[in-house]
UniProtKB/TrEMBL annotation:
SUPFAM superfamilies: YcgL-like. InterPro entries: YcgL-like_sf, YcgL_dom. Residues 1-85 form the YcgL domain. This is YcgL domain-containing protein DCW74_07420. Pfam families: YcgL. PROSITE patterns: YCGL (PS51648). The lineage of its organism: Bacteria, Pseudomonadati, Pseudomonadota, Gammaproteobacteria, Alteromonadales.
Length: 97
């Protein structure tokens, strides 16, 4: 199975996977408006890869087959202040007002 991967300039780390290049027929209009005109990153032969970076291959294949697209969201950024407070044994939120 092949898929085309597009990135958006609107949100770093967001990618849209579709079954073939330029095939956005199954992507909801609202999503396309949010995503904007994507830039083709690559065309990937899924059968040749056991693992994919930041994507569960089975979820990707299922979404492409059932829905006709897959949207990869950027990884959640760690809140460094919360992590620092936890490392000090403090609560995540300051008690000061």
């Amino acid at each position: 199975m092949l898929c085309a991967i597009y990135k958006t300039r609107k949100k770093q780390g967001m990618y849209l996977y579709v079954p073939k290049k330029g095939h956005f027929d199954d992507v909801p209009e609202e999503l396309m408006n949010m995503f904007g005109s994507g830039e083709l990153v690559t065309i990937l032969a899924l059968d040749k890869h056991d693992k994919l970076a930041n994507v569960d291959k089975q979820k990707l294949v299922t979404a492409l087959t059932d829905e006709g697209y897959y949207l990869q969201m950027p990884p959640k950024e760690e809140d460094l202040l919360v992590a620092h407070r936890k490392s000090l044994g403090l609560s995540e939120i300051s008690d000061k007002k």
